[in-house]
Amino acid sequence: MVKRRRRVDKRVFRAVGNVVLAVVLIAVAVLFILNYFGIKPGRLFAHTRDVSVHFIDVGQGDAALVLTKEHAVLVDAGPVAAAGKTAEYVRSYTSKLDYVLISHPHEDHMGGLPKIIETVEVDAIIMTADGSDSAFFTRTLDLIEEYGIDVYEAKPRDLYRAGDITLEILTPLRYHENKNDNSAAARVTVDGFSILFTGDTETEEEAELVAEYGDHLRSDVLKAAHHGSSTSTSREFLKCVSPSVAVISCGKGNEYGHPHASVLKNLKKIGCEIHRTDNEGTVVIRIKDGKLKVSE
After folding, report:
1. In the chain, what is the straight-line distance between the N-terminal and C-terminal CA atoms, in Å?
2. pLDDT band at residue 47, thresholds of 50, 70 and 90?
3. What is the CATH number of the domain that holds 273?
């Protein structure tokens, strides 16, 4: 017996088609609205884990700790004078660092690293090929060998991942006589947000960053280079980065006059929040429910 095929009412197809079309149009409209207000779609689905970035008050120097519930990355380690304070601060939040990135081997960025290594477990260190004959640098190399820590040379476009934290090395793109312009700048992304770390990058390397990466530099948070020196944070660079928050790590009453008035003026002109460790102490930025919040 041959079964007859049941005739499907064309109105059913039309109804389904209309529903699909409506869903597509709504999705397009939502994406348009998000784009108009500068909201990244991924942030609507941001994780609710604790995510924070700690710009540690180390005086005249740099040290920043990026934390999720299970992973931690340290960018620079502050000066020798604040080594104990920096190490204790890190240990109060984590017993293990997946990576330590040293932007360049100047004492105010690397002097505290030996104490860090002796205080918490360090899986790997990322650093430039630049060296130093300073005691802290020699001590660091000795400890790296003693503890069997992996060391990677900072090379542009290399990616390092620690759970949800992604660390992208941007510079140095070439060798400079000015050691500050050999800084390893890096863009860290976590939970849909980005933080641009710049070491002591000056205007020459900033110009190279703009030429090489353009809009890829766009970040939610900028760690202003060279402690707010007038030799960094140019207007052209800021136009590319377009941060909503800028953090300046410098010492209270420092002899260099950091941050410079021209840098503060440039940052104010783009309308971003400015936070300073010399005035506020440690600056903590928390990421939750798709939003950035600077802790008071």
Report:
1. 81
2. very low
3. 3.60.15.10
Task: Kindly report the backbone phi and psi dihedral angles of residue 73, in degrees, each rounded to the nearest multiple of 5, phi listed first.
Answer: -130, 135
Please check whether residue 95 is in contact with residue 71, taking contact to mean a CB–CB distance below 8 angstroms: no
Alpha carbon distances (Å) from 284 to 112, 137, 221, 246, 292: 20, 28, 12, 12, 10
Compute the distance between CA of residue 233 and CA of residue 253 in angstroms, rounded to an integer: 21
Assigned domain for 29 exists = no
User: What's the number of domains the chain is made of?
Assistant: 1
User: pTM for the whole thing?
Assistant: 0.83
Rounded to the nearest 5°, which phi and psi values hold at 180? -60, -35
pLDDT, position 83: 98
Angstrom distance (rounded) from CA 172 to CA 186: 10
In a domain, 18, yes or no: no
In a domain, 138, yes or no: yes
Residue 6 included in any domain? no
Q: 199, 206 in Cβ contact below 8 A?
A: no
**Mean pLDDT score across all residues of the chain:** 89
Q: Which domain holds residue 234?
A: 47-294
Identity of the residue numbered 203: T
The secondary structure of the chain, three-state, reads CCCCCCCCCHHHHHHHHHHHHHHHHHHHHHHHHHHHCCCCHHHHHCCCCCEEEEECCCCCCCCEEEECCCCEEEECCCCHHHHHHHHHHHHHHCCEEEEEEECCCCHHHHCCHHHHHHHCEEEEEEECCCCCCCHHHHHHHHHHHHHCCEEEECCCCCEEEECCEEEEECCCCCCCCCHHHHCCCEEEEECCEEEEECCCCCHHHHHHHHHHHHHHHCCCEEECHHHHCCCCCCHHHHHHHCCCEEEECCCCCCCCCCCCHHHHHHHHHCCCEEEEHHHHCCEEEEEECCEEEECC
